[in-house]
Amino acid sequence: MAAATLEKVNWKYGTEDVRGKSVIITGGTTGIGRAIGLLLAAHGAKVLVFGRNQKDLDDALNDIRSVAADGGEVHGLTADTSKQEDIERVFREADSVLGGVDILVNNAALAAQGVTDMDYADFEYVVRTNVVGYMACAKQALQRMMAKGRGHIVCVGSMSADVKDKGSDVYVATKTAIAGFCDSLRKQVNEKGVKVTLVEPGKVGTNLSGDDPDIQKQEQEIAEEKMLTSEDIAECVFYCVTQPWRCEIVNVEIRPHKQII
Questions:
Q1: Is residue 108, in this structure, part of any structural domain at all?
Q2: Which of 19, 35, 176, 201 could form a Cys-Cys staple with 234, CB 3.0–4.6 A?
Q3: Is 11 domain-assigned?
Q4: What are phi and psi of 8, to 5 degrees?
């Protein structure tokens, strides 16, 4: 009965194909960004990832290239999103090897504590990375996307923007800024053919959790449904960028089933 009923549903639900699309992933050498690169390349996208560390970049490129589908491409370089000259270099590279950018995934971000626990130079660097870097990459992408009347910017934010835990006010401030930035930017560029999506994860088991994360503890929390994996966020981003063009996923909050706010 159920199968027969399903056969009567003749929806023509054509999703967007990422095959051959040019994708830039900031912070694409580790954690969430790396998982996104793996998934999009496996579906035939032309991917450019970058991060600050050469070893992480080399490891990521090896992994992503090993799963890239026929027709897909994988490129990478080291760069720091807190530096204007690095961002401009990344997008020049994208023009050269990808022919521009169809999808930008703004993901590079640093964990942070509160202003009372950090020196000025340290929290300034976090703000430049987590906020200014997102804005600067979006500006570069938009120059290219609006020229052709089509594009998609995905910003990986955080539930911290809503939860606002104590002791992490610098990080909370940056993620709250990104939420506001995405909401306003979407209203500005929507008529130019550019989509803007904000994905706000809850607790995720990635190296963002610390310089030397307790892997066993993370695995236990994942098993207890108190923590997500990087792959969970990658699947969410993939869903957002493959919906029919008439659909715009504006904001997604994705949290572990048993994460208590």
A1: yes
A2: 35
A3: no
A4: -80, -15
Taking only the tens of pLDDT, the chain with its 261 residues reads: 465 565 677 777 878 999 999 999 999 999 999 999 999 999 999 999 999 999 999 999 999 999 999 889 999 999 999 999 999 999 999 999 999 999 999 999 999 999 999 999 999 999 999 999 999 999 999 999 999 999 999 999 999 999 898 999 999 999 999 999 999 999 999 999 999 999 999 999 875 444 555 788 888 999 999 999 999 999 999 999 999 999 999 999 999 999 877
How much is the pTM?
0.93
Catalytic residue among 13, 120, 171, 239: 171
- Domain presence at residue 5: no
Residue 259 included in any domain: no
